[in-house]
Write a structure and sequence with these properties.
Mean pLDDT: 82
Largest sheet: 5 strands, mixed
Number of strands: 7
Low-confidence stretches: 1-16
Strand order of the largest sheet: 5-4-3-6-7
Strand content: 15-25%
Helix content: 25-40%
Radius of gyration: 13 Å
Structural class: alpha/beta
């Protein structure tokens, strides 16, 4: 199965360098810090701009409502689990985040919750290090 996260671009497929990166937030409904992070989603979206946020919940996708419906993507739980296993390693902890370029390459993961005030700096350092 191929997961399309950006319009017309499949997961891991080469893409135009002008396309946005993706900040993938891993979580689960049973993870209290993950659910708390969702309360700050509008701030995280602003801090991640121009990049897209992707919610990769490993148990069930989180529905996006309201003003964020066109600004945040969600990933199928099976694909989220596969990506987490690949990028975070066996026995990964939640919450976690990765930044991915248009070609699907990720930089070193962020372990734990992230605040909007820290996201921009982490994103810059992460994407610059690849």
């Amino acid at each position: 199965m191929v997961l399309a996260l950006l319009p017309g671009v499949a997961w891991g497929e080469a893409a135009d360098a002008t396309m946005p990166h993706q900040i993938v937030l891993f979580g689960a409904r049973w993870c209290a810090p993950c659910m708390a992070e969702l309360g700050h989603l509008p701030d995280l979206v602003r801090a991640a701009a121009p990049d897209r946020l992707v919610l990769a919940w490993i148990d069930r996708p989180i529905p996006i409502r309201g003003e964020l419906a066109g600004q945040v993507d969600t990933m199928d739980a099976v694909e989220a689990r596969r990506l987490a296993d690949r990028e975070l390693g066996e026995g990964f902890g939640l919450p976690a985040a990765i930044a991915m370029g248009p070609a699907g390459r990720a930089c070193r993961p962020l372990r734990g919750s992230i605040a909007a005030t820290d996201l921009a700096a982490w994103r810059r350092n992460c994407l610059a290090s690849r």
